[in-house]
Amino acid sequence: MAAKTRKETLSSRIVADLRAAIVRGELAPGEKINLDRLREAQDVSISPLREAMSRLAADGLVAFEDQRGYSVTPVSLGDLAEITRLRVALESLALRGAVAAGDLDWESQVMGALYRLRTTPRSAEAPAAWEAAHTGFHMALLRGAAMPLLLQFCAQLRCLQDRYRALYLADLPAGRDVQAEHDAIAAAACARNADLAVSRLVAHIEATGALLRARMLG
To answer: How far apart are CA 42 and CA 39, in angstroms?
Structure first.
């Protein structure tokens, strides 16, 4: 049992390291993943690496082809459009559920996550803290729905779009106040105005999708 736990912990660490490297663009879209080289760098056996690859493939971050092996999933305008549409659909469903079912603890968690996001500087040189606070806020909004499978899908889609933002949207163009958008979504959600909260969330997601598309087109 202890050996199995250690293996799962090792595999989870490798998954977390590789996911972060892929999302940040340190492993480029389409780049081949050399398992032998990775095994040496991670100082592990091939078994947890293969398990990590399977988990990342299930998350849509790694692709596998016969005769070619593993590679980082490519990016494309079509993929971005699908991710954006799915985020709109699933996060709208989750937010409606959260507004209907969320209790006072949920409201407190939303406002706490919003405060953390508001007080965390966004820096292109060190983006990790802001990205963590950003994800924390969005997931806190949805968590009140108490639908674990739906939240899992929402988290996966966020991760996929985060990679596009890291690659193409390290800086925001003038004229967009993202913090004001977050404030407005949280205010409507905590006021239990589901229609307004969802419309603001949809506008927020679609604005990011449009900016990413424009950046990809150059």
So the answer is: 5
